[in-house]
Amino acid sequence: MKEAMFYQSGKGSEVICGLCCHRCHIKEGRRGLCGVRENRAGILYTLVYGQVVAENIDPIEKKPLFHFLPGSRSYSISTVGCNFHCLHCQNYDISQYPHLHTGETAGVEKTPESVVEAALQADCASISYTYVEPTIFYEFAHACSELAHEQQLKNVFVSNGYMTPEVTHHLAPLLDGINVDIKAFTDDFYKKVCKARLQPVLDTVRLMHKLGVWVEVTTLIIPGLNDSSEELHDIAGFIKSVDPGIPWHVTAFYPTYKLTDRDPTPVESLRRARDIGLAEGLRFVYEGNIPGEGGENTYCPSCRAELITRFGFSIRQNRINDGCCSKCGEKIEGVWGQQADRMHNV
């Protein structure tokens, strides 16, 4: 247990958490919506500092980040808890753990030093804070991020984008890449499916980009809920308004958790979403969760040469040279770096 960051005193012994845009007013002895920040005698504590429940070595493509050190490994960690309650969460067993276990938390105790050392020993190029919303274990993620940069490791968030602007400003100097879910483009979806709101997510995408963090966006296409052409045009139009070079991942839904009354996403829906994104003016749109369909490759926006050939999370060929198309010289937006010693291509 560690005193939390980003909170202030409210009325009496109440505290107001400023970590995410719920800005929970938490009474004495109670917790925020995330289930892992508790008010004890007017002091807000994080209950999951260093309590790592998931720890894996992942290809960076799994985040998904396609324009961020492609072919590199990322050391991925998570605690329990989340500030969203998505009906279709694929990691609900850890994201909703406190709610499913009468307030209990779980995890193996780790220090920032042990996480960074493990990432280095595994020959990873980055540490990813992922699997649940990493903002809810911000104190630990921030401590790891500081040490990671000292060791020349990059830091990545896989996020729902619901952190407050003050947290974004605090995090950005240590954050190298982020994938933000834009789950839909209506408040109705966010309220019913995620128990949240849309606008803070859009604000985070815009602010992260403004502060110089590499941003990619993911939308899970759910039949009948967020797959209308109008809504897809709206999402693509928003991304373009921030930067047409931001990659957009449109990925396939599979029934899970409390959303089992929907069919899996047809390939045709992903193809339509990708076509809409490209027609809207985005330079890079990728189809996800359906390997081998060709929509996961990177093409030069100028000459259409196939630059990165992917299959699932592996790279079969990379023809980007110094951040440019090897055929016509067009600049390809991304964080490329020199990662030849850390590639796991097939």
Summarize the structure.
The protein is α/β, with parallel strands linked by helices and 346 residues long. Helices cover 25% and strands 24% of the residues. The protein has an eight-stranded mixed beta sheet with strand order 8-9-11-12-13-14-15-16.
Summarize the SSE layout with pairings.
Layout: E1 2-3, E2 7-9, E3 15-17, E4 25-26, E5 37-40, E6 43-46, E7 51-52, E8 54-59, E9 73-78, H1 92-95, H2 97-100, E10 108-109, H3 112-121, E11 126-129, H4 138-150, E12 154-159, H5 165-171, E13 177-181, H6 187-194, H7 199-210, E14 214-221, H8 229-242, E15 248-252, H9 267-280, E16 285-288, E17 298-299, E18 306-311, E19 314-318, E20 320-321, E21 324-325
Helix pairs in contact: 3-4, 8-9
Structure, explained:
The strands form six sheets. This protein has an eight-stranded mixed beta sheet with strand order 8-9-11-12-13-14-15-16. Strands 1-6-5 form a three-stranded antiparallel beta sheet, with no helix packed on it. The chain has a three-stranded antiparallel beta sheet with strand order 2-3-4, with no helix packed on it. α8 crosses α9 (267-280). It is built from nine helices and 21 strands. The chain has 346 residues and is of the alpha/beta class.
